[in-house]
Amino acid sequence: MSQEFLGDRKKALEDSFFAKESDKLRDELKQQEEVKASKESLSEASGITDSAVLEQLIALDIGSDTVAAISLVPLVEVAWADGDVDDKERDAILVAAEAAGIGRDSASGQLLDSWLAERPDRSVLSAWKEYVGALSATLNVEGKNTLKRDLLGRARSVAEAAGGFIGLGNKISKSEQDVLDELDRAFS
């Protein structure tokens, strides 16, 4: 065997090795870009900004539509706690939905409009509680607490939107607090 033949084989082997490494690095970069895009989408849909929680949701294959539904149900339930949705509560919910990337003309936006016009069936809340309970069991403590704080914080904002009597006293009614407590227990 000639030195030239061995040199050619060595070069081909090196080229093959580096091509595989380059493909591997390219695939890793593509995967990182996909995770980043997924995190941004989930963050927009939920308002959750904690990177670790977003990564856990991605690992569980939870999409932005699911997160949007998870974030809307508590708002709607708190708004209906007193038996009707007043204009301040409706506005607070619509602002929260828009901030979560839910447009009024989207399917989620239309569902939200129907929930604000007519109280959703109790089965929606039951399904939400079961889902949140199962999801909470899969998250680490920090992730669960962050998700809980974010979801219940927005629900509390809706409860406070109607305010107390001429802005005095407790801004959250007993029925709204009862709903907030029920939502809180879903995370246990």
pLDDT averaged residue by residue? 81
Structural class: mainly alpha
Main sheet: strands, sense, barrel: none
Q: Give the number of domains.
A: 1
Low-confidence spans: none
Shape: elongated
Order of helices and strands: HHHHHHHH
User: Using DSSP, what is the number of strands?
Assistant: 0
Q: Please estimate the helix content.
A: over 70%
Radius of gyration in whole Å, from Cα? 24 Å
Portion of residues in beta strands equals under 5%
Termini gap? 73 Å
Count the DSSP helices.
8
Written description of the protein model:
This protein is mainly α. It has helices spanning about 5-45, 50-60, 65-80, 85-100, 105-115, 120-140, 140-160, 175-185. The chain is elongated. The relative contact order is 0.12. The mean pLDDT is about 80.
Summarize the structure.
The chain has 188 residues and is mostly helical. The chain has helices at 3-46, 51-59, 64-80, 87-99, 107-117, 122-138, 141-161, 174-185.
Structure characteristics:
single chain, 188 residues, mainly alpha, 8 helices, elongated
Topology:
Blueprint: H1 3-46, H2 51-59, H3 64-80, H4 87-99, H5 107-117, H6 122-138, H7 141-161, H8 174-185
